[in-house]
UniProtKB/TrEMBL annotation:
Belongs to the glycosyltransferase 2 family. This is Glycosyltransferase, GT2 family. Residues 158-202 form the Galactosyltransferase C-terminal domain. One of its GO terms (molecular function) is glycosyltransferase activity. Keywords: Glycosyltransferase, Transferase. Pathway: Cell wall biogenesis; cell wall polysaccharide biosynthesis.
Length: 263
C-alpha cells in the first residue's frame, strides 16, 4: 500500500518544520508528502526537498476544504492508495504512519489520538509524550487498539486517514466552506450518511503544537455564521453550537428562526 501524507498550510512555518522532522523519524516512512500552500509563497523554503508543494490561491477566508481536496488529488495522481491528513500544527509520533497503514481498510475513517503541547519556543521530539495533554472529550485507545466510534460528530481533521477508495466514495470535502469551521463536521456527516464508520486508532498519535487561540473565536465569527448556514442547509442542524452560544452570551449573535445571525 502506498501511503501519502497531506498537509495544508498558511503560515505556521516553524510548526511545519517540526512536522517535517517528525515525519523524517517514522518507523514506516510515508511514500509521499503533499504540502498545499494556501497563498503562502514561503512554504517552499521551509519544505526544501522533503515534500511536494501544491500552490493554491487564497483570499481572506482560507480555502481549507479546497486545499485538502487539492492535496488528495495530487497524492492520488501519484499513485497513493492510502491518505493520511495531518494538520500543520501536528507533530506525528514515530509510529503514526505505520499504525494508520497497518489498520487501513475500505469503508472507514481512522483517527489517531491528538494531544496538546504546552507553550514552548521549541520542542524536543524525544520528549513529546511526557508533555502531552490528551483531549478529554475523545478516546485515547492503547497502542495497537482500534475502537469503533459511536458519534461521528467527534471526528476532527487534525489527524485522520482513509483509503483512496473511501476518499473517492465520499467525494472529498465540500468546497462550499471557506475559512474557520464546519467543513470537517460536514465531511464526517457525509461519511455517516454513506455508512462509512469512524474508528479510533491507538498508537497513531500526534502532538498539537501550541499557538494562541481565542475562546470563543471572535475573530472567526463571520466564518462561523456563514459556514454554519451552509451546514444547516445541507444537513438540517447547526454545528459549532458551543461557539454560537458563547457568542450569544457576549451579545454578538442571536437566534433567528431555527438559525443564527449577527446581533
Amino acid at each position: 500500500m502506498r501511503t501519502a501524507v497531506v498537509t495544508v498550510v498558511h503560515g505556521r512555518h516553524d510548526h511545519l518544520a517540526r512536522q517535517l522532522a517528525g515525519l523524517a523519524r517514522q518507523t514506516r516512512p510515508a511514500d509521499d508528502h503533499v504540502v498545499v500552500a494556501m497563498g503562502d509563497d514561503g512554504v517552499r523554503a521551509v519544505v526544501g526537498g522533503r515534500a511536494r508543494v501544491v500552490d493554491l490561491p487564497a483570499g481572506p477566508r482560507l480555502p481549507l476544504a479546497a486545499a485538502r481536496n487539492a492535496g488528495a488529488a495530487a497524492a492520488l495522481a501519484a499513485g497513493a492508495d492510502h491518505l493520511v491528513f495531518l494538520d500543520v500544527d501536528c507533530i506525528p509520533a514515530p509510529e503514526l504512519v505505520a499504525r494508520y497503514s497497518a489498520v487501513a481498510q475500505d469503508g472507514v475513517l481512522d483517527s489517531g489520538p491528538v494531544s496538546y503541547l504546552p507553550p514552548a519556543d521549541d520542542y524536543d521530539l524525544d520528549g513529546l509524550a511526557a508533555l502531552a495533554d490528551p483531549h478529554p472529550a475523545r478516546p485515547a485507545p492503547r497502542d495497537g487498539e482500534v475502537l469503533p466510534a459511536e458519534d461521528h460528530r467527534l471526528f476532527w481533521s487534525l489527524s485522520f486517514a482513509l483509503t483512496a477508495a473511501t476518499w473517492t466514495r465520499l467525494g472529498g470535502f465540500c468546497e462550499a466552506y471557506a475559512g474557520y469551521g464546519g467543513e470537517d463536521t460536514d465531511f464526517a456527516e457525509t461519511a455517516h450518511a454513506a455508512g462509512v464508520g469512524l474508528r479510533w486508532v491507538g498508537g497513531a498519535a500526534a502532538f498539537h503544537q501550541h499557538h494562541p487561540v481565542s475562546r470563543p473565536p471572535v475573530e472567526h465569527l463571520d466564518d462561523v455564521l456563514v459556514n454554519g448556514r451552509v451546514f444547516a442547509d445541507r444537513w438540517g442542524w447547526w454545528p459549532m453550537q458551543g461557539w454560537l452560544e458563547a457568542f450569544a452570551e457576549r451579545g454578538l449573535v442571536r437566534r433567528s428562526g431555527e438559525g443564527w445571525v449577527a446581533a
